[in-house]
UniProtKB/TrEMBL annotation:
It comes from the Bacteria. It comes from Sphingopyxis witflariensis. Keywords: DNA-binding, Transcription, Transcription regulation. This is Transcriptional regulator. SUPFAM superfamilies: Winged helix' DNA-binding domain (SSF46785). Residues 4-71 form the HTH gntR-type domain. InterPro entries: Tscrpt_reg_HTH_GntR, WH-like_DNA-bd_sf, WH_DNA-bd_sf. PANTHER family: TRANSCRIPTIONAL REGULATOR, GNTR FAMILY, UXU OPERON TRANSCRIPTIONAL REGULATOR.
Length: 203
């Protein structure tokens, strides 16, 4: 195992590239090229990729190496359903607690992630927070294409941010969360198709 001072920044650098869509879905991830790019040895890169495989951000096949995970329509629906269940559990645990959303000057995908982590944090349940963070990572790339599929996504986000910051009635926040997830579930096939065809972003 790599020393923490080498492993952690290597892992974070690779993970950020995955979350930002710098490789196409299904692309083979070459550990040697990554090590050269990041200026580290092969060991921390491989250790990072094995961890990311455990997080289902990359897939590992013996004899074929690592590939960027391909999110399917069924998996997207399942993730949305579980994400909603966990958020509603956090909401029910602390219905009158305030949540401070991420700063509005952050990129939209990061604002979404920050908002849901803020809601999760209201429950003071570390397992809910960790689970929502992990699911959010797997959904992160879909948030990059929200606006290409759905209308009014920024206004939708702002409505939820306002509701949780102002400690709106639980039923109101619940309805906003339901609407957010249901809109995306209805377009799951479109999300899966667009992700499969999404060109790599420039690092």
């Amino acid at each position: 195992m790599s020393p923490a001072h080498v492993f952690e920044p290597t892992y974070e650098a690779i993970k950020r590239r995955l979350l930002n869509g710098e490789w196409m879905s299904g692309t083979r991830v070459e550990a040697g090229r990554l090590a050269e790019l990041l200026g580290v040895s092969l060991t921390p890169v491989r250790d990072s990729l094995y961890r990311l495989n455990g997080e289902r951000l990359v897939d590992f096949t013996p004899g074929d190496g690592f590939h960027v995970h391909r999110l399917t329509e069924a998996e997207f629906r399942d993730l949305l359903e579980l994400h909603l269940i966990l958020l509603l559990a956090a909401l029910a645990t602390a219905p009158r607690a305030a949540a401070i959303p991420a700063p509005a000057d952050q990129p939209y995908p990061d604002r979404v992630a920050g908002l849901f982590l803020a809601i999760a944090g209201r429950a003071s349940n570390a397992e809910i927070v960790a689970s929502i963070a992990a699911i959010g990572d797997r959904l992160h790339l879909t948030r990059h294409i929200d606006a290409a599929i759905l209308s009014g996504v920024v206004e939708e986000l702002e409505a939820i941010e306002t509701a949780v910051a102002d400690v709106a009635p639980q039923a109101q926040v619940r309805n906003l969360l339901l609407g957010y997830h249901e809109r995306r579930a209805r377009e799951a096939a479109t999300y899966a198709r667009m992700l499969a065809d999404l060109p790599a972003r420039q690092p």
